[in-house]
Amino acid sequence: MHEATMKFSKKRIKKSLPINHESPLLVPQREEKKEVHDFNGGSLTGAVFNLSTTIIGAGIMALPATMKVLGLGLGIGLIVFVAVLTDCSIEMLLRCSKAGKVESFGGVMGDTFGNVGRRVLQIFVMLNNVGVLIVYMIIIADVLSGTSSSGVHHAGVLEEWFGNQWWNGRTFLLLFVTIFIFSPLACFKHIDSLRYTSALAVALAVVFLVITAGITVVKLVSGTVNMPRLLPNISDITSFWSIFTVVPILVTAFICHFNVCQLPLGMGSDKAYLGTSFYSPRPVHTIQNELEDPSMIHPVVQTSLALCSAVYIMTSFFGFLLFGDSILDDVLANFDTELGIPYSSLLNDIIRISYALHLMLVFPVIFHPLRLNLDGLLFPSATPLVSDNRRFSLISTALISLIFLGANLIPNIWVAFQFTGATSAVCLGFIFPAAISLRDPHVVATKKDKVMSVFMIFLAVFSNLVAIYSDARALFRRNS
Question: Which of 14-18, 189-193, 325-329, 392-396 has the lowest mean pLDDT?
């Protein structure tokens, strides 16, 4: 009886899995296989919207203020310049990824600099994304609940509508948004599942742009708008150095590298380094690897950068034209006063609410690679995060709680914004891709790439050191 059962089991094994020289040593789990085939690839349009949503975030609110420092002509020129540099750095990164046969930013760093490079990248992505998401929460709270700056209180939308109530206070409002908006959107395991919310987010950013442009045109026709400066107003050495303080903002405005290439989760599909040699069951998906045709990633990048550059330029142009040198660091704060046109109060509310909703929808797209990187740091040899619901829930809850606490403890967006822009953002956007190209382990970088890499590293290090020095000096002078 027992022998007959053994023979029958062997027949079933032979029938279900033919054994030959190409047979795997380990039979893949059925659940893993089923989950792989449940996802058939993301669309090109979805990839463009997701990447554009990654790029267009809180940085757009600060760009009009950079025009006050740079002047309209130089400011628009620098937006285009940073967009071109971003395209170059991503193109070099994708080429090195293909040559090394690795499918992630972390994989390229590991292939070039070993496991230390991979870990350093993960830490910087986490620092950047946590800082950016804290900024998002602070702006949302400022818009809906109000904020105070230099002794002046700027009322929030809900405060204007309903007065000062317990339920529209800053902490309660952020708790509500976190539980009922951020948490459900953060539960999606594939980034392509966010393509519709990403499309809506881009549309809301366009709403902000169109209304701002319309207000500016009306005021131009009525003759109440002065012509803006085209160049910076440099009167002394301090005003010259202050030009470099806009670099972290411009760099942060175009950071998207962590979503272009997939990011590592338990080493993803890349081989581990420094003596380890296991292979994960399947790669972790982000924008490139969720595309139905991954070779289309570069057109996706170029389309997204062109779209975002156009939005940035028009926002900066109309915002600076509308408010001139009186523009605040966060341009949304300028929309709590009378604009001198019909329906001014209604338009102010639409502008602020549309952009608050935009940030709410951008949140999960930035949160996705943050969660993957933390999981890769804590559980480098574990199964993919999407197949472990318990680990997925615990990491998501811990990160959302951390961001919520940060948004309540940090007083304003510039503390987080300047720090992330001058440190992690510039490393992710320029220094790391340039260093990979200079190291060039697979000899794919051209002479032009080498020259561009040296230029990017020099520009990033110099401008951000000057920016940090200028910010610190201004802070000390203000306190004294």
Answer: 14-18
pLDDT band with cut points at 50, 70 and 90 for residue 83: very high
Per-residue model confidence (pLDDT) at position 289: 55
Distances from the Cα of 88 to the Cα of 275, 429, 437, angstroms: 33, 10, 11
Is 14 domain-assigned? Answer: no
The span from the CA of 55 to the CA of 365, in Å, is: 10
Residue 50 belongs to a domain: yes
Measured distance CA(254)–CA(358) in Å, rounded: 17
Q: Is residue 392 part of a domain?
A: yes
Phi, psi of 42 (to 5 degrees): -85, 160
Q: 244 or 427, which is more confident?
A: 427
Q: Which residues of 310-344 are buried (b: 16+ CB within 10 A; e: fewer)?
A: ebbbbbbbbbbbbbeeebbbbbbbbbbeebeeeee
Residues whose CB falls within 8 Å of the CB of residue 106, separated by 6 or more in sequence, listed in order: 118, 121, 122, 263, 264, 268, 270, 373, 376
Question: Which range, of 31-40, 83-92, 140-149, averages the lowest pLDDT?
Answer: 31-40
Quote the tokens at residue 263. Answer: 């990011």
For residue 451, pLDDT beyond 80 = yes
Number of domains in the chain: 1
Instruction: Report residue 304 as tokens.
Output: 């997204």
DSSP E strands in 175-284: the ranges are: none
Domain of residue 430, residue span: 42-479
Residue 31 in any domain: the answer is no
Q: Cα torsion at 315, 321, 327, 333 (round to 10°)?
A: -50
* The pLDDT value given to residue 328: 74
What CATH number does residue 105 fall under?
Answer: 1.20.1740.10
Per mean pLDDT, which range of 238-247, 289-298, 359-368 is the poorest? 289-298
Which residues make beta-bridge pairs with 262? 104
pTM: 0.74
Who contacts 266 (Cβ-Cβ below 8 Å, separation ≥6)? Answer: 280, 284, 375, 376, 379, 380, 381, 382, 383, 384, 385
Tokens matching residue 140: 């949302």
User: Which of 46-50, 53-57, 281-285, 355-359 has the weakest average pLDDT?
Assistant: 281-285
Q: Measure the CA–CA gap between 379 and 391, rounded to whole angstroms.
A: 10
SS3 label, residue 104: strand
Instruction: Report which secondary-structure segment, H or E, holds 347.
Output: helix 344-378
